[in-house]
Every structure is written in structure tokens, then in C-alpha cells.
Amino acid sequence: MEILKEQKQKTMLDNVIEQFDKTADSMNLNPNIRKILSITNNEIIIHFPVKMDDGSIEIFTGYRVQHNNALGPYKGGLRYHPTVDVDDAKALAMWMTWKTSLAGLPYGGAKGGIQIDPRNYSLSELERITRRFTFALGENIGPEYDIPAPDVNTNEQTMAWIADTFMSTKSPSERSNNKHVVTGKPVGSGGLEGRDRATGFGVYITLRLLFEGRNETLNGKKFIVQGFGNVGYWASKFLTDDGAILIAVQDAHATLINENGISVANLHEHSKPRKGSVKGFEGGTEMEPEDFFGLECDFIIPAALGNQITEKNAGKIKSKVIAEGANGPTNNEGERILLANGVTIIPDILCNSGGVIGSYFEWLQNRNGELWPLDEVMVKIEKKLTEVFKKVESLVNEDQIDHRTAAYILAIKRIETAYIQRGIFP
């Protein structure tokens, strides 16, 4: 089943450029700043050799695209996936610029990764690939310059390897000052308590706030999730703990439904030893994958790859709320259909920003040499998310616009202000 492959009829880069142009037109963005923001600052492509377990040498291609750093160091994830290319990295880097700006963080946007299917490599091979990629990137990343984080198919272990490799290239007296070169590290290696669940927690908080604004609660609300990785799992856990009911899950291997509710804990236990796959879970019945988005429910969480909701399936969607846990899961043609049908979309740059907010607190914690307990971290993330969500909702209501347009206007306006105040060198 290939349901979760990136659909390439229109690329994510096409989508993000179109979204940017639409926003720039609507807010009369300064034309000079528009030129700057429409391009990336740096696009790094690296080919590097790695020795495999059998002694053979394989050549890998890695990417790091740095879109804009007007507000602070570049920030963004690294993904390991066969579809990684420079155009996808450019799109994702631009989204990161808008996301960090919208969240009010002192960051710019970057993204990257390696064109690889990690399932085809052993753990020791993945470690060597990661360390060699880090070494090849060299000074193109750094704790005050460009700070990677986990993304699709990367995790805290990946970040620990990157941090250790990068720190090892520094003199002994400087190594501890470079711990915050990445975020999303294991807690024992300088990571933040709660960073693992921050993105999914953000999806939950934005949904809760949306329904609270309508004088509704999550209790009894039925929802479906595409992708049961880190984001899909944690979002589902927080939502079901608050009384919502998960009725269907889809990933690249299976589409499961149970109208009475799927146990998030049991599904997690099932999928963990199967590299995240939900196939074979006895608490749900397999259904046709193309019917997934058309299920009757109160909200949908696409938390897998980009371009999953398109003009081909948007018209089938009956849910009136979509919470974008993934980056770019809805293309522009699909979005137009959804908006015409009265669907509210909580855009990715708002909905899944809990992850980068958590990363910011991890970065601060490392910088300041502090350690914060889990409950304190979750309060910090919730407070930040609530502030941002209310700003977006306020603009939505004032200007009678959709949530994505409101979020983009707020994000881009903050960058525009920075450029106007600072000027352009020389």
C-alpha cells in the first residue's frame, strides 16, 4: 500500500510559494522584503561515503536548506526518507521560518535530511551514516547558527549521535558549550523533559482551544489520525485522556477502524516493536485506505507526510475540523475545497508548533545550564501555545479570514518589522 507517499502532482514547494504569495498580496508586504523572503539563504547538498556492515562503501546524499535567519539562528528538523530532496527541504525550511516567527521565538527556518529509507540499514550503519553526515555538514550547523532537531524517521538517538559528533570536533574546553547544537536529545544527554511529546501536545492544545472558543469540550468527540508515529501517538493520548474517542488510524501499512474506540495505549504497545506499523492490531478492523478521510468524525489529524489531502479527496471529507499535525498535509487546491465546504483548518505552522516551542526551551536549558521538571516544561509550552493561538483566532475574527492566512500574516509581519527596523547591509 502506497497511500502515504508524497503525491507529486504539485510539490510542497509549489504550495508554500503560493501560500506566501497569497499572504504577501493580502498584507501589502514591502516589495523588497518580499524578494528576500521568497528565496532561501543557503542550500547545502552533500554526498558522503559510509562503510556498511559488510565492508562495502555506499554513497549517501544529504541536504540542509537555510531559508532565513532575520530573527535568530536557523532552526528545523532533519528527516531520513526516500523522498527527501532539495525542493522539499526548501519548502519545509520556509514553513519553519513562518512557524518560529508565529510562535514568537528568536529563530529562523531551516530543514534537511538524508535521502534514505532507514528500514534498510542496521542501527550501527545508521549511526555511522548520521555521524558522517554531521561531520560533512561541519560549520554549516552550530548552537548559535543552525540547530537541527528530529523529524520524520529521526529521533532522540539520532540527535545524540549528532551532538556527540559535533562536540567531538571542538577543543575539550569548548565541547560543553556546544551541547545545544541540536534539540530533541535524550534527557540523559541534555534533552528536555517532555520534548518527546511536545508536538503531539501542541496538536491537542490547539484543538482544545478551538472547541473551547465554540463553548464545546473534547469529551465524546470522535477523531481519526493519519500516521501513528510520535505526533500521532501523543496527540491521540492527550485527546483520549480528555475524553475524545479515536475511531480510525491509517499508516503506510494499514487502515484500521473501530467505531467504539481504539485503545491508544494498546495500539502503541502493538506498533512499538513493529517500527511504528499499526498492521495486525486486533483492536480494529482493516478498511479500504481511500475511504479513510471520508469517515464521519468531529476532527481529522493528518500526522504523516505532506500532500495527503488534495483536490482528489478533499470533497469526500465530512469532518468540519482538520488539525495539521504533519507539515504541509493539505495542498492548496484541497484547501480551497475544504474552506468552501466550511471546514476549519488549524494550520501546520500553528498546530504542530509545540515541537519547536519545546526545542526552544531545551536550547535555553542547555544555554543556561539548568534542568526543568516535566510539569514545569508542559506549563511553559501550554502558555506559549495559548498566547499564539489566541492571536491567530483574534485576527481570524477581526478580518473574517481563514486560520492559515491569519497565521501567515502574523508570522510574516514580525519578520517584515525586523527588516524595516534593522535595514539591509550594507
Structure description:
The protein is an alpha/beta fold and 426 residues long. It contains 13 helices and 12 strands. It has helices at residues 12-26, 31-37, 86-102, 123-137, 156-168, 198-212, 230-241, 264-271, 332-340, 348-351, 354-368, 374-399, 403-422; strands spanning 42-51, 57-68, 74-81, 109-115, 146-150, 222-226, 245-250, 255-257, 285-286, 299-302, 321-323, 344-346. A 5-stranded mixed β-sheet has the order 1-2-4-3-5. β6, α7 (230-241) and β7 (245-250) form a beta-alpha-beta unit. α1 (12-26) runs parallel beside α3 (86-102). The longest helix is centred in the C-terminal third of the chain and has 26 residues, at 374-399. The protein is globular and about 55 Å long. The termini are far apart. The relative contact order is 0.14. The model has no long low-confidence stretch (mean pLDDT 95).
Main β-sheet description? 5 strands, mixed
Helix content: 40-55%
Let me know the average pLDDT: 95
Structural class computed from helices and strand pairing = alpha/beta
The number of helical elements comes to: 13
Please write the string of helix (H) and strand (E) elements: HHEEEHEHEHHEHEEHEEEHEHHHH
Poorly predicted sequence stretches spanning 5 or more consecutive residues = none
In short:
With 426 residues, the chain is of the alpha/beta class. The protein contains 13 helices and twelve strands.
Secondary-structure map with pairings?
Blueprint lengths: L11 H15 L4 H7 L4 E10 L5 E12 L5 E8 L4 H17 L6 E7 L7 H15 L8 E5 L5 H13 L29 H15 L9 E5 L3 H12 L3 E6 L4 E3 L6 H8 L13 E2 L12 E4 L18 E3 L8 H9 L3 E3 L1 H4 L2 H15 L5 H26 L3 H20 L4
Parallel strand pairs: 3-4, 3-5, 6-7, 6-10, 11-12
Antiparallel strand pairs: 1-2, 2-4, 7-8, 8-9
